[in-house]
Amino acid sequence: MTRPGPVLHLLCGKLASGKSTLARRIAREQGAILFSEDMWLSRLYPGEIATFPDYLERSARLRSVIAPHAEALLRAGVPVVFDFAGNTPRERGWVRAIFEAAGADHLLHSIVASDALCKRQLRRRNEELPEGAKATTEAEFDAITRHFVPPGEEEGFRVVRHEGGSGDP
Question: Is the model's pTM score more than 0.70?
């Protein structure tokens, strides 16, 4: 039996659309290494991210470390899941550079969810606060969502669409 080549899975979806839940499921089902930005940032920079510029600076530092490791894993035949870096063309371009440099395949999992659904899920997440998550207001949701850009066909990604934050295609 031949094993398929390594795949880098990246996720795209609004805040609280179900990306982390889907990322964990994909990692479990594919035997993949999961890189969760929220978890890494909360452990590496506890209490240091209070503003959006703080997040951008710490995230850039994290990405500079993760990129070569993800590429090496893919070269070794290990599938990888990124629970971040898929919500703008620029972020997706960064991920593309990694899987292309590794000679690996990719799947872009795009979660389609309404703002109303995301806000309901955000309220629930704020009550539970899973590891790495911080409470997020609806005003913050609106501000962050303004930057969200769904993937376009012209970007050339292999896209799997998931509806309503369920993680199911």
Answer: yes
